[in-house]
Design a protein that fits this description.
The chain is an alpha/beta fold. The protein has 5 helices and 9 strands; from the N terminus they run βββααβαβαββββα. The two termini are 27 Å apart.
């Protein structure tokens, strides 16, 4: 898929979460925060999910639903949530369909070795289902607060 830009219609998905299926089409009329992250229980991913959980009430007050997406299984997500007391919706995209539709599956390098993985990226989707903001290659510190500020501005 071509790279997504602000103003584009957000790609529709329906993926499993611990409370059943979560679909973007059903969330039309709400502000949606999609944070794509590489892997449950890694340092940065855990910090990011904890930050979004900490601000869950403020996001709800702003009319926003926060959804985390990674290629991990539903069982891994359930363990991740339990271990860290997470209250955000985490969906399992084991087929990487949404991950690829949003253009966040890319080549990365670590210690000089190239591999494919999820590039930590957050999309803010407005009530009409259009992309209002994109944060790519996210640095976790202060990120959830910045996203909250942008959600409140919609």
């Amino acid at each position: 898929m071509a790279e997504l830009a602000i103003g584009d219609q957000a790609p529709i998905f329906s993926l499993p979460a611990d409370g059943g299926m979560v679909g973007l089409a059903e969330l039309r009329g709400k502000i949606v925060v999609l944070f794509f992250y590489p892997k449950d229980n890694t340092e940065a991913c855990t910090a990011e999910a904890i930050d979004f959980t900490r601000l869950k009430g403020a996001f709800a007050k702003a009319g926003a639903v926060v959804i985390g997406i990674s290629p991990d299984s539903l069982r891994k997500h359930e363990n991740f949530k339990k271990k860290h007391g997470l209250e955000t919706i985490l969906v399992a995209d084991e087929s990487r369909k949404a991950i690829e539709d949003y253009g966040v599956w890319a080549e990365k390098t670590m210690y000089g070795r190239a591999y494919m993985g999820v590039v930590r990226t957050t999309f803010l989707i407005d009530r009409d289902g259009k992309i209002a903001r994109i944060w790519s290659k996210v640095k976790v510190s202060g990120h959830a607060e910045e996203v909250l500020g942008a959600a409140k501005a919609l």
